[in-house]
Amino acid sequence: MTTVSAPRIEHHREPLGIGEARPRVSWTLGDAPAGWQQRAYAITLTRPAGDETVEVVSSEQVLVPWPGRALDSRERIGVRVAVQGIDGMWSASSPQTWLETGLLHAADWSARPVGLDLDEDPESDARRATLVRSTFRVDGPVAHARLYATAHGLYEAEINGVRVGSDTLSPGWTVYRERLRYYTYDVTALLGEGDNAIGAWLGDGWYRGRLGWRGGHRNVFGSDLSFLGQLEITYADGRRETVATDDTWRAALSPILRSGIYDGEDYDARQELPGWSTAPFDDTAWLPVSVRDRDPHTLVAPTGPPVRVTEEIAPVAVLTSPRGARILDFGQNLVGRVRIRVTGQRGTTVTLRTAEVLQEGELYTRPLRSARSSDAYTLAGHPDGEEWEPRFTFHGFRYAEVDGWPGDLDADAAAGALTARVLHTDLERTGWFACSDPLVEQLHRNVVWGMRGNFVDIPTDCPQRDERVGWTGDIQVFGPTASTLFDVSGMLSGWLRDVAAEQLPDGTVPWFVPVIPSHKVWSPIRPGAAWGDVATLLPWTLYQRFGDEGVVAAQFDSARRWVDRIDAAAGPDHLWDEGFQLGDWLDPAAPPQDPADARTDRYLVATAYFARSARVVADMAVVLGRTADAERYDILAAEVAAAFRAAHVNPDGTMSSDAQTAYALAIVFDLLADETQRAAAGERLADLVHAAGNRIATGFVGTPLVCDALTLTGHTAAAYALLQEQGCPSWLYQVVHGATTIWERWDALLPDGTVNPGTMTSFNHYALGAVADWMHRRLAGIAPAAPGYRRIRFAPRPGGGLTHAAAVQLTPYGEASISWRIEQDALLVDLVVPVGTTAELDVPGLGIEELGHGAHSRAVRI
């Protein structure tokens, strides 16, 4: 009997406080017999008044339309699904999923932002974090209670002395003037009859803390530190009472002396206020709050999960440096914070300084630039010990230098007293890979760790230094890999709304989103190929990988305006051949301080991306049924491709820039005239790879495409040679030199073991890890052949001396997998096709075979 999973609501892992009044519903199917197909589905909605069931004749099971009326704010609905096969038989109902809407309308909000007014230096990086609190009474049995919370700055809420939620760095980083995210918490269990208290910690975060490089900027989004909270209590008798931030709240300084995203946190436990968030606490010495303003129309519910601590890592070694410093080695470059458990005399200060690498045995902080990246904890002197972890900061590090530890550091570290707490947006893992080459497997692990460390509320970069901004080009090139490894659909569709909000009236897409002030290289904002194309290519990637037409509809205007902006810049000849461009950024041949000086002409890159984006907008218009737009952009894409060929492709298939990135762009973006020209370009690309000793000769633009270009033109062996090369520069050069994440530069660590002298030298930057998507699609051989993996292409291309490879993909329809191995003279392939999908199997020597759902095995002599 076919079984149905508990339904998923939109892209939410936990559908509490959602912002969609008509949320779409998805489910997966299992245990269906061979040949079974869904004919219809029935969605049952459970409300207090009873059940309502809607039957729909459809084979769809991913993001199907909401079957009932639009939901109201605070509405809680149970959802379950049953399906009917073409045989007419109905399945049993799925397990029930409960969803609950948040506050959907501005009128639902009565809370105002409140905080402490201090006479502070607005340009200081050492402004105090603060506390706010209030008390209230509960005068009867509580049916349920919800806290809706956000802040100007970062917050952590408490009720009756207990931390609310498991999220951190909330409410995250959005274009605050347009969109301030709030979170919803079920706090029913935290309330008791009688007197209660609620409060919040507040820290600078992205809102008013230092942002940017070369000294940065402060108060980019505002100068106030404010909490906005609305606690709604629903009693068993149906009454609803609201406790909202207003002028009755009180405020005080917290024990956090300073806190910054880049600089770390200083905490003095001697200044703690025990019980401050409980009702009996005496706050008469606290100050009245100042009430600030916030347009409630800008308050939005999240579309993806929050940042959380997802893993703990113990140090693998405690080192002593040549100068006598004690350094913890966590064995993994990660993003997070160190939690300590310590016992010592009152007033003792423990300082933790973090960095990604050592040089000559010492902590090496030059790559941090101006980021202090240091935390300090001053003990209160509790005889039973103290536990502490920073609240409002994060660091990129493998090593932590510990100064002032009052005990035996070696013994205490071994006993778990110092632990690295890994944090990132709590995305669901969806893609796994394995193969017979341990170095390639380590490369894949490095890509995963690099993505985790740089997906901290926004798709960012360089989590250790004074930057950490949402570079648009980086996520554009990495989007397919990100969408393979994790379910980024909700997170990135939300971030794309910020891209649209920051887009200039003329259609220009900024270099990074949210936009912050920057020095002259990045200001004023100008259009740039590959970076601005995030407006077209990332929504299209999300559609292809997750089957979400909604993101195409939501972003179409932004995408169209971007292509129109390029069209205006290119003019009648359709060549984008002027203006500021980054080109193939960080080509290894570029000088350390001029990373845009690549082997491939930057204007060739620009025109190629113009053609690609025009084509994607045409395809988006087809999906949306916008016939006139589809025709217009289809013609434009063809004209730009023709202009590209006339300007940059010779009749024999060679190119004006005889460089790997040029050929990769032309092949993968389908810009060549015919198969003869395409074959010649592929042959030349393979020759260039071999001539370079199989070493990397591409930057941000070419790297995600070069292995695909080789494979598409029949040069799989060259793609493997490129992947498995260990000389500098190469992917495995990083691995054999001890990398545990992807580096920003191919040679961030030089062959002699010293750090690259460039000022942009991060050891955790995901862009060059975009090859992992090729590893899943071509090496292991699993790829979407229709949006959302409704149809799956299994096409393994063994090579490179590998004897086996495997990939698992958690698709919107369920788990798909492939595993191949070579035994003697045979290639053995095992597949799983999820129910609701079809597949094509393309194995050399077998031809293309159509497959239905279920497990399949094939063998072919090689």
Overview of the structural elements:
With 862 residues, the protein is of the alpha+beta class. The chain contains 15 helices and 47 strands. Strands 15, 22, 23, 27, 28, 29, 30, 33, 34, 35 and 36 form an eleven-stranded mixed beta sheet that branches. Strands 14-13-18-11-21-24 form a six-stranded antiparallel beta sheet. A five-stranded mixed beta sheet has the order 3-9-8-6-7, with no helix packed on it. β43 and β44 form a beta hairpin. α8 runs antiparallel to α9 and α12 (703-712) packs antiparallel against α13 (716-724). The radius of gyration is 28 Å and the shape is globular. The two termini are 39 Å apart.
Identify the notable features of this structure and list them briefly:
15 helices, 862 residues, 6-stranded antiparallel beta sheet, alpha+beta, 11-stranded mixed beta sheet
Largest sheet: 11 strands, mixed
The tally of beta strands, per DSSP, is: 47
Given as residue ranges, the uncertain stretches (5+ residues, pLDDT < 50) are none
Number of helices: 15
Helix content: 10-25%
What do the pLDDT scores average to?
Answer: 97
Proportion of residues in extended strands: 25-35%
Provide the gyration radius in Å. Answer: 28 Å
Distance between the termini: 39 Å
- Summing up helix and strand content along with how strands pair, one would put the structural category as alpha+beta
**What would you call the shape?**
globular
